Amino acid sequence: MSPYNRNLYTDPGWWQRLLRSGRLCLALLRDRRVAWYLKLIPLAAVVYFFSFYDLIPDFVIPGLGQVDDLLVLYLACRLFLHLIPDEIMRDYDDRRS
Q1: Predicted structure pTM score
Q2: String of DSSP letters for 16-74
Q3: What is the pLDDT of residues 17-54, one digit of tens each?
């Protein structure tokens, strides 16, 4: 079976990478070497997640309204990790291995 035919949600590697990225975001939020303005990205996503304003309101299409909230959190975490300076990311890679 090709890797493209596997179900994304049953792939344990996908879930592990997602959890690892979330833990890394939390660790970097606590790191003093990360600029304060970069830390606003995931914090703004958390505020959006708990706010009453949505891109897709929860009552319009049931289920899809919650998905857009999670998508904003995921994309904010990805952007945050992408903007972190390489030397800080290398330090976290060294700790992990």
Answers
A1: 0.76
A2: HHHHHHHHHHHHHHH-TTS-HHHHHHHHHHHHHHHSS--SS-TTTSTTHHHHHHHHHHH
A3: 888 889 999 999 999 999 999 999 999 999 988 887 77
Q: Is residue 13 part of a domain?
A: yes
Domain containing 13 equals 8-96
Would 23 be classed as within a structural domain? yes
What is the tally of structural domains in the chain?
1
Residue 57 lies in a domain: yes
Distances (CA, A) of 68 to 53, 56, 65, 95: 11, 7, 6, 33
In a domain, 53, yes or no: yes
> Does residue 57 have a pLDDT over 90?
no
